[in-house]
Amino acid sequence: MNVLKTKDLTKIYGSGTTEVIALNHANISVDQGEFVAVIGTSGSGKSTLLHLLGGLDSPTGGNVLIEGNDIFTMKDDARTIFRRRKIGFVFQSYNLVPVLSVYENIVFPIQLDGGKIDKNYIDSIIETLGLKEKIHAMPNQLSGGQQQRVAIARALATKPAIILADEPTGNLDSKTSQDVLSLLKITGKKYNQTIVMITHDEAIAQMSDRIIRIEDGNIVKGGD
Ligand SMILES: Nc1ncnc2c1ncn2[C@@H]1O[C@H](COP(=O)(O)OP(=O)(O)OP(=O)(O)O)[C@@H](O)[C@H]1O
Ligand SMILES: [Mg+2]
Fold it and tell me: pTM for the complete prediction?
């Protein structure tokens, strides 16, 4: 089954002379466990697509189905809860909470949802991402790559079915980018998570199972 599907997903910003068709009748589908890269030039609509997939923004037209559920027919509160349980986000800026330790940052989304911490699972994420020595460190004591790995660990913490990542390695050098990406790929396969990752870097995109290409708001290749 498609874990993620869009139907004619469209986003238009502004109106009249300032109108921008950021996403134009996009149809994509992603299977459970697939690692998909979305590639396109700056302004092509990548972030717009990702925000809509995660229900962070609402479309002008079309639908987003997650495990068959149309997320934009849900009430706002229901969608927020659904998103928290199903989706992990990784952004280019790591958005770690500066006053919390690495460990506290990682388990933060679980606590936000009042959930129980699965210690074995969290330990295994920390191990896989090579953060064991750093769990008591504060974010400002970490390198960029380490902070990015914490952000990934935090996205994985709630065992989301889907990871949505917007240029997760945008601030890292190419060697660290490849390392972080390999880890994301490994954890994704290990926990059967679906990953949709935005990049404008061909080499990074090549690490995925499939590449979706977007140009001027149109999916031109690899949508399904
Ligand atoms: N809030 C907004 N209001 C108006 N226009 C917007 C808004 N957000 C994005 N756009 C426009 O929509 C188009 C797609 O933007 P988007 O952020 O999705 O691009 P992107 O592919 O993520 O680019 P980048 O690689 O630079 O991050 C652009 O033309 C952008 O200017
Ligand atoms: Mg963007």
Answer: 0.91
